[in-house]
Amino acid sequence: MDDAAQDEHADGLCWLMPGHRAAPAEALRRIQALCAAWPDLHAALFVVLATHQELPRDMLAAAVKQFRTDLDPHSREDVLSLLTAIWNGGKSGFDAVLRTRANSPKKGNNLSWLKE
Q: Which of 9, 80, 84, 107 could form a disulfide with 61 if both were Cys (CB 3.0 to 4.6 A apart)?
């Protein structure tokens, strides 16, 4: 292991490296901590998306929804749209989706095992 790799491992940042596969419980713990640390919704979703790129976005949406009470009025599909908007459209795209989803009718959840 070279010096850079040892420093990375010592700092506990190996989970941010490309290709790292976290156990679901480990990822949920980190997502919960990030959601709590970032009071701004856009910032919280942005940092979760940036740090968990290996996870499918629909799983990220379900996980984030568990830890952000400001997402309670939104469906998992709404949160998925917000994550996509952050990835593709930055802050302005995110705000546009948030405005349009706030009053839209909600569809039923076909994934009964996910907590919404």
A: 80
